[in-house]
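#onboarding

Welcome to the new folks! Below is a worked example of what a typical request in this channel looks like: someone posts a single protein sequence, and someone else replies with the predicted structure as tokens. Don't worry about understanding the tokens yet, we'll cover that in week two.

Example request:
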Amino acid sequence: MMLGTGRGVKDRRPRLPRVRPGLGRTLLGPLFPITGSGATLRARPDGGGIFGGSRPLIDDREPGGHLAPGDVRTRSIVVLLPALNEAMAVGSVIERIPMEALRGAGYDVYVWVVDGRSVDATPEVAKERGANIYVQRGAGKGNGVRQALDHLMTDRSRQHIAAPRVYVMLDADGTYPPEAIPEFVQALESGCDVVAGSRLRGRIEDGALTSLNRLGNQALSGLAAFLFGFPISDVCTGMWAFREDCLQQFRLAAESFDLEADIFASACEVGARLRELPVDYACRIGEAKLIPLRTGLLIAWRLLMKRLNARGLVGPERRNVPAQAGRAVDQ
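Example response:
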């Protein structure tokens, strides 16, 4: 079934939400229904999960295990929104998720905000819109996403999330288009294991990407392509989608903004069927947190270490996705 996708770059700078302490979902209710409890969870201190998160991986051969038959259609979509002090943007990002189109196509949708211990109203704004909150342990985008995935991919946490499952991750700062989620899901349904959103193949809003950041991204993408043999155009993209049975094979170790490089290298390591889709990229809402030079060096180091320590590198399969999968790009 084809899913609709909204396109175009618009000015999406909402006013800072006014949230009073203690005024949560029970009183106001979500602006639209989202499947899930609207719970707030905190990372456990014990660690030991498959990605260094809060809980261990269960045996995928037991009932309730991770691996789903390849011919079974996805039933649940888990949207991950990493956020640190994104109160100005996270509400509009959640509201723009095309819930009606996804539910109309037969999916249950679960929205999880991975909170990096925000000191503003990020958790309150997200909960008012029906999202679940996962409060990470420690600092860093990579740490938070790994911990949240560990939690979500355990049997105890997933009992209310029907299998098979896919995960879609995008930043909560308003730069990436939630309207493109159906297109990413359709690409996964058409045979991909991992889908990356390429800003350089899409439309970039004026001022959204500096010349320095563009040059650095091109250099890092070139390095990634050289090391892993896949012509990735935007290895630093913050919008990804994964099939769960592929994701659980990854050996993610990133702690910070090297997460995306870690995801790409892990997909190559396990021989995932990887595709890029063009995505629009808008100016972020709120203050930028990325320090270009330091982050660039961190990403390059992650790519090099993953390549040097790769175990039996297979390389990604360049799957030819059918035309009905949307704007899939033939490499």
